[in-house]
Amino acid sequence: MAAFWAAYVIPRPLGASVADWMAVGHSRGGLDLGLGPVTLSWTVAILGVVGSLAASRKDVRCNVVS
Fold first, then answer.
1. Which of 34, 37, 41, 51 has its CA 20 to 30 A from that of 18?
2. d(CA 8, CA 1)
3. Would you say 32 and 25 are in contact if contact means Cβ atoms under 8 Å apart?
4. How far apart are CA 17 and CA 10, in angstroms?
């Protein structure tokens, strides 16, 4: 149960921090890409990874009994 909560809780603030850093202006230390483009790019990236795994099925373990 501890591993689940660590995997669930730790990435959320880290991901939010990275997205905020990418979106905020240079005056606040960010990349100034804007909220819309950052949201769109992360959405496309996540959907691409999920679609790739769904198509390749590399994440599925197959136990063949002969």
1. 51
2. 11
3. yes
4. 11
